[in-house]
Q: What sequence folds into this?
C-alpha cells in the first residue's frame, strides 16, 4: 500500500468518526429543540471539506491506476460529498429545529455510506 492509499484510508476513518460525532450532535440539538448554531454550521463545513479532500485523493488514486475494486465505490463517494449541500439546498438555508434533525440524520447516513464505500474500495 503506497502513501496515497494510506492517506485515503486515514481520511476515510476520520470521516467516519467525524460524521458520527457531528450526526449525534445534530440529533441532540433536535431533541433539545435547538436549531443549528454557528458552531454546528462550522462543523458541517469542515465535514464537507473533508469529504472533498477525500474525493480528490480518490481521483488521484484513479489517475495512478489504483481504481476501486468495485465501481459502486464511486457512487458512495459522490453521494457522501453531495448529502450536506443537498440538505442545505432543499431547506433553502433555513435554520430551525428541523434542520438539526436533517443534518444530524444526514451525517449518520454518511457514516453508513462511508462504511459501504470502505468495503467496496478494497
A:
Amino acid at each position: 500500500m503506497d502513501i496515497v492509499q494510506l492517506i485515503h484510508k486515514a481520511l476515510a476513518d476520520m470521516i467516519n468518526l467525524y460524521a458520527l460525532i457531528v450526526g449525534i450532535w445534530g440529533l441532540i440539538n433536535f431533541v433539545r429543540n435547538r436549531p443549528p448554531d454557528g458552531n454546528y454550521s462550522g462543523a458541517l463545513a469542515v465535514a464537507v471539506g473533508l469529504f472533498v479532500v477525500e474525493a480528490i485523493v480518490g481521483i488521484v488514486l484513479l489517475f495512478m491506476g489504483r481504481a476501486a475494486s468495485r465501481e459502486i465505490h464511486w457512487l458512495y463517494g459522490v453521494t457522501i460529498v453531495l448529502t450536506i449541500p443537498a440538505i442545505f439546498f432543499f431547506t433553502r438555508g433555513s435554520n430551525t429545529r428541523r434542520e438539526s434533525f436533517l443534518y444530524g440524520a444526514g451525517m449518520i447516513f454518511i457514516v453508513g455510506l462511508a462504511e459501504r464505500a470502505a468495503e467496496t474500495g478494497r
Remarks:
- Helices lie at 3-31, 38-63, 72-90, 97-120.
- The radius of gyration is 15 Å.
